[in-house]
Design goal:
Radius of gyration: 22 Å
Number of helices: 15
Mean pLDDT: 92
Low-confidence stretches: 312-319
CATH topology: TIM Barrel
Largest sheet: 5 strands, parallel
Strand content: 5-15%
CATH class: Alpha Beta
């Protein structure tokens, strides 16, 4: 009786332990196959990387087109060679002198390995004759070597009308129509990001599946007054697609709604000028593998490979933008492995779940890894 009482007391004491959520790192007990890969099935074009950022910004708006470079080609080329990355797209190339510097440092120094996109001059959006000024900047950017236009979520979530009410400028504000038209005329695809995961628009509470991420980055939350809803942002974006059918758009991050593939499919069905990339969303795609596989089968000609890698920080570029990140993407696309991490450690960066591989066939892999992006960028396909 004494021994039984002692065991019951000890068990109760163990059951009452408290563990901080951030220290909880369970290891799966599943014994499931792990498929070894030696690189991707085909050479890769990573459509979504950031090699530079705005040198100066205020309230989420870049003040100039000048760039702050966070890595060099020599930081990246060894990883690219090991992981069969034929070409890397730097989306945030700025404009003016910043764009010229980015193109010189990456594109011209290593032909075919890097391509650079320009960005709008949002800081000038409230100035007289902005629309024409923006078109002029875009035309100059093309002459300077830009291969497309990148639209950050500055538009819709940060950029304000400083001349009147101070309200956020809508994604479909007509002062930007000449810019979208010019992109079509100049054959410059528009890589557009206007929203974020749906959890970012919800309260940061115990019901939010991205609580840890938002708790670590409270400025990422767009919940509450002062911000449009996710539905409003996507509806405005879709009106832009409809008004500019001759312009090619790439809705980044699985059309900014990877949690609702039916919504993304409806947009792809309605707007033939639309494609998407998978950057930073395999965590969402991989936890709905059957729906994702059907989605990839149907839209195999309009899905682009991308990672949203951001070299820099305290770690070396190789640690942030390295082999492990690409190996996870390849594993997700090529194998039918089960229940594995969707990002390098520390995991989970977005939410506490694991993912499952899609096991895509080789013809689809060739399109997603390279040919779909090559077609948009007027490159030679594999």
């Amino acid at each position: 009786m004494t021994r039984r009482l002692f065991l019951s007391t000890a068990t109760a004491a163990l059951a009452q332990q408290k563990l901080p959520l951030e220290d909880f790192q369970p290891k799966s007990m599943l014994r499931v196959p792990q498929t070894p890969l030696r690189g991707p099935a085909f050479p890769v074009l990573d459509f979504h990387a950031h090699l530079s950022w705005a040198a100066r910004s205020q309230n989420g708006v870049a003040l100039t087109g000048d760039r702050k470079f966070i890595c060099t080609p020599n930081d990246l080329l060894p990883v690219m060679d090991r992981q069969k990355i034929r070409t890397l797209i730097n989306l945030t190339g700025g404009y003016g002198s910043g764009l010229k510097q980015a193109v010189d440092q990456f594109d011209r120094a290593h032909p075919g390995r890097f391509l650079t996109m320009t960005e709008p001059a949002w800081a000038e959006a409230n100035t007289p004759n902005y629309s024409q000024r923006q078109v002029d900047l875009l035309e100059q950017a093309k002459r300077d070597g830009a291969r497309g236009l990148k639209v950050l979520k500055t538009l819709g979530l940060y950029l304000r009308d400083n001349t009147t009410s101070g309200k956020l400028l809508a994604v479909d504000d007509k002062r930007f129509d000449p810019l979208w038209d010019a992109c079509g005329r100049l054959a410059l695809p528009v890589a557009i990001h206007v929203s974020d995961p749906i959890a970012f628009f919800l309260p940061t509470d115990r019901f939010n599946e991205r609580f840890e991420e938002l708790n670590n980055h409270p400025d990422w939350s767009f919940h509450g007054p002062g911000f449009p809803s996710n539905d409003e942002l996507l509806a405005a974006r879709n009106r832009v697609f409809a008004r500019h059918p001759k312009t090619k758009f790439v809705a980044l991050h699985v059309g900014n709604f990877a949690e609702d593939l039916q919504n993304v499919a409806a947009a792809l069905d309605k707007y033939p000028n639309l494609s998407i990339d998978i950057a930073a969303r395999i965590g969402e795609l991989g936890r709905q593998p059957r729906a994702s596989r059907r989605f990839f089968d149907k839209y195999q000609d309009r899905i682009l490979f991308g990672t949203d890698a951001v070299p820099g920080g305290k770690e070396t570029p190789q640690q942030i933008f390295g082999d492990q990140l690409y190996e996870i993407y390849y594993r997700f696309l090529e194998t039918e492995d089960e229940y594995f991490d969707y990002a390098p450690a520390p995991v989970p960066p977005q939410g506490r779940w694991q993912i499952y591989g899609l096991g895509l066939p080789r013809p689809i892999l060739k399109k997603i890894y390279y040919n779909n992006a090559a077609r948009l960028l007027n490159l030679i396909s594999l």
